[in-house]
Each structure stands twice: as structure tokens, then as C-alpha cells.
Design a protein that fits this description.
Layout lengths: L6 E5 L4 E6 L5 E7 L9 E11 L2 E11 L5 E7 L2 E6 L2 E10 L19 E3 L15 E11 L8 E6 L5 E6 L3 E6 L5 E6 L5 E6 L5 E6 L4 E5 L2 E5 L14 E11 L2 E13 L10 E6 L5 E6 L5 E6 L5 E6 L4 E5 L5 E5 L7 E6 L4 H7 L4 E7 L3 E7 L7 H22 L5
Antiparallel strand pairs: 1-29, 2-3, 3-4, 4-5, 5-9, 6-7, 7-8, 8-10, 11-12, 12-13, 13-14, 15-16, 16-17, 17-18, 19-20, 20-21, 21-22, 23-24, 24-25, 25-26, 27-28, 28-29
């Protein structure tokens, strides 16, 4: 049975390009905008309170942070700190949640950010002032560093390390830059790709960095030394070297195996054809970087990738607006909604598997948020898969054995 159409969780007044969820709070942060063009479309970062209301996931607008003429295209989150990619720079923001001075009041803080809270439930209800648990979000701009120096400069990827001590950025000039955090002192800068860097993945020990570029390469680096270049199709005959390029790369945990890691990459066709070839997902060993499994994931060009905290699920968005969830172990597709958005899906993110995140799932196994240029944030719910516990399976087997023996005894009285 095909999944129901995903519910619209929130609709912004501008195109949305990125979404992140706080690991310890029921908070989603999404951002985008119209850029510097004087079209009347604003630019901003929106903070959304997530909660279960009547068995449905609901989002309430807590705060709008105005980013002036800069649209946020990429974003990374480390605790209460945001690294926002805006044009050729990375802006470091710190936010804090505070109870308002007057409950239920809305106004503007000293920075000019709007603090009104609006609610849009999973059913897409009209915005209104949210009662009760209203909070104020205060946003402080810490610093700004330039992260791209190409003629058409644009920061395309940003990633915090697991411990929050390191920030990696990449953009249109092909340079990988590593920054100490929070000092934002640049510790490393080198040309990783001949062309744009599409994505970055940081290893858990901060020793290795994986970069995916538009030059058909996906590289593993230790400092500025190339460890290895990935070759996803070396065991797939008939695929030329430059028929596909790497679109995304992410490290993920291995369910039930503490400390183990897998690297996941997405390969998309370099050229668009009348009959589009399939895109591919590849799972790699996180230490040897040898390919473990490769599977096609549909002919719609994949635009973004996310991995659940436990490493159980992969979330994909496509340029045609579709959203899919795959099982990480087998790379098989478990959930798919064609054209969930009317245009390219720009980012996807799983609800965290922390205690606050589990409370938001409402009995579902996983929830994936997707945002797109159509200004909508939608939620994709994955029902809990039914499974029998081991003890029950053993009991059933024992029952079948006893029943078989009794039937044989009835049929052949001298059997026993």
C-alpha cells in the first residue's frame, strides 16, 4: 500500500533551502530566502517548535531571524550554534530560548527580529497566535568568515565535527577549509576538487574528511593528503568513468554495532538524457573505504541525503520533488512519495532519536522533514514495522513440533 500524501508541517514566506533539528529540543530550524534581488522576497532563519497535538505532529513558529539581503543556502548545527552558509561566507549564530516577559505577547527584540509565534498543524491550518507554551528566541551574531573566493562565490557545504570542535566548509572554488571552533581560526586550506564541492563528511575522530565534487571525484583526506579516491563502479561493468558524479556523502552509525561506521554516497548521472538512467546508492566500509553494496535508487535525480541517528534509515530528496526513505542495511526503498513537493527538494532531515525526538514520533518508527523551493516543510512518517519477538518465534516452532508429533500419533497409532 502506497504511503499517504505527506502532511504540510509549515509554509514559509520564502523559498526554503535547508532544515536542521535540534538533538535535545523539539526544535526545527529552517532557512532560505530570495537572495539579494529586489523582488520583495525576504531572507531569514525560522525557528519552529515541534510538538504532538491530538496525535499529529505540529509546528509553531517561534521566531524569525532576518538575514537582510543574504539567503541561507546551507546550514550546520552544533548545540545552540548555527553555521549558516550565505553567499560567499559562513555566518556563526548563537540562539537561546527564553520565557517571554509577558506570556502570549509578541514583539520585536533589539536586533529587529520578529518574535511572533504562529502555529501550523500537520493538517495545514491557518496561522494564528499560539497559546500557552510560547517562548522567545534570541539570536546573536558571533562572527562571519569568508569561505569561497571564486568569481561566482557560493558556500555549498558546511559540516560540524561530532565534538563541535571543528567546522569544515566547501564551495564553488573547490577548496576545503577547516576552522577551529569557536575561535574560527583557519587551520587548513587546500584545493580538494577541480570545480565545486557538493558535500562534506567528517569522520568521528576528526582525522579524515570525505569530499564529493562535481569533477567526478569523491576523496578521503587526512589533513591535506589524499588517502584514497572512491571508485563506486569498479565492480559494475559497462559504466564509464565520467557517466556519473558524486552528489552527496554522509557517515552513519551501524545499528547494533557500537563504534562501527559506514559511509554512504549518492551517484547521479552527469548528463540528462531523454530516458534517464538510474541514480545509485553505495555503502562503504568506514575504515577501509571499500564498497560493500551498491543499489539503484530510481531514475529521479537525487538532490539531498540524510541519515537517521541510529544509522537505520537513509532519507533522499529529488530534483523533481519526490521523497524516499531507504533501509541502510540493504539500501532497499521502504517509503516513497512521488512529487511530495512541486519542485526540487533542497534538504531532508530525520527527527532525532533522543528522548524529545521519540516523544514527537507518536508511535512511528521514524519521521523525516523535507523542505523545498516551494516554501513548504513537510513531514514523512514511517509506521513501525511489525515484528515478532524471538521468544514468541521459538514458542511457535515448539508448538508446531508438538502438533506434528500428535498428528503423526493419530495417523499412525504405533508411531511412538
Amino acid at each position: 500500500m502506497a504511503p499517504r500524501r505527506p502532511a504540510e508541517l509549515y509554509r514559509a514566506p520564502f523559498p526554503l533551502y535547508t532544515v536542521r533539528l535540534h538533538p535535545r529540543r523539539p526544535l526545527a530550524i529552517t532557512a532560505g530566502g530570495g537572495g539579494a534581488a529586489k523582488t520583495g522576497i525576504r531572507n531569514g532563519v525560522h525557528f519552529l517548535q515541534l510538538e504532538q497535538i491530538g496525535g499529529r505532529l505540529s509546528a509553531s513558529l517561534l521566531h524569525c531571524h532576518d538575514t537582510e539581503t543574504r539567503a541561507t543556502m546551507t546550514m550546520a548545527l552544533a548545540g545552540d550554534v548555527i553555521a549558516a552558509g550565505q553567499d560567499n561566507s559562513c555566518h556563526i549564530l548563537r540562539f537561546s530560548l527564553q520565557e517571554p516577559e509577558g506570556a502570549g505577547t509578541a514583539g520585536k527584540d533589539g536586533s529587529g527580529d520578529r518574535g511572533a509565534r504562529r502555529r501550523r498543524g500537520a493538517g495545514g491550518g491557518a496561522p494564528g497566535v499560539a497559546p500557552g507554551r510560547a517562548r522567545e528566541v534570541r539570536v546573536e551574531s558571533l562572527q562571519r568568515v569568508r569561505t569561497d573566493f571564486s568569481p561566482d562565490a557560493l558556500q555549498k557545504a558546511v559540516r560540524f565535527s561530532a565534538d563541535g570542535a571543528l567546522l569544515a566548509t566547501g564551495g564553488a572554488d573547490g577548496f576545503l577549509r577547516l576552522w577551529e571552533f569557536p575561535s574560527m581560526k583557519k587551520t587548513l586550506e587546500f584545493r580538494a576538487h577541480d570545480g565545486e564541492i557538493e558535500d562534506i563528511a567528517l569522520g568521528p575522530d576528526n582525522k579524515q574528511v570525505v569530499t564529493a565534487g562535481r569533477d567526478f571525484q569523491c576523496c578521503v583526506w587526512q589533513q591535506d593528503q589524499l588517502v584514497t579516491g572512491l571508485r563506486w563502479h569498479e565492480n559494475l561493468p559497462g559504466i564509464p568513468d565520467k557517466a556519473y558524479r558524486y552528489q552527496a556523502c554522509r557517515f552513519g552509525a551501524v545499528e547494533g554495532s557500537a563504534g562501527a561506521l559506514r559511509l554512504y554516497t549518492v551517484q547521479v548521472p552527469h548528463k540528462r538524457e531523454r530516458r534517464p538512467p538510474p541514480c545509485y546508492l553505495t555503502k562503504w566500509d568506514g575504515k577501509s573505504f571499500l564498497p560493500l553494496l551498491t543499489r539503484p535508487c530510481g531514475s529521479e535525480v537525487v538532490s539531498c541525503l540524510s541519515i537517521s541517528d541510529s544509522g537505520t534509515f537513509l532519507g533522499l530528496g529529488t530534483v523533481t520533488g519526490s521523497v524516499a526513505i531507504h533501509i541502510a542495511f540493504s539500501l532497499q526503498r521502504l517509503y516513497y512519495v512521488k512529487e511530495a513537493h512541486g519542485i526540487v527538494v533542497t534538504d531532508v532531515a530525520f527527527v532525532p532519536e533522543s528522548r524529545p525526538g521519540r516523544e514527537l514520533l507518536g508511535g512511528h518508527e521514524a519521521a523525516l522533514l523535507s523542505v523545498a523551493v516551494d516554501s513548504r516543510c513537510k513531514v514523512h512518517l514511517l509506521p513501525t514495522r511489525r515484528s515478532l519477538p524471538v521468544w514468541l518465534l521459538l514458542l511457535l516452532c515448539a508448538g508446531l513440533i508438538v502438533a506434528t508429533i500428535l498428528l503423526l500419533q493419530l495417523a499412525f497409532p504405533g508411531f511412538l
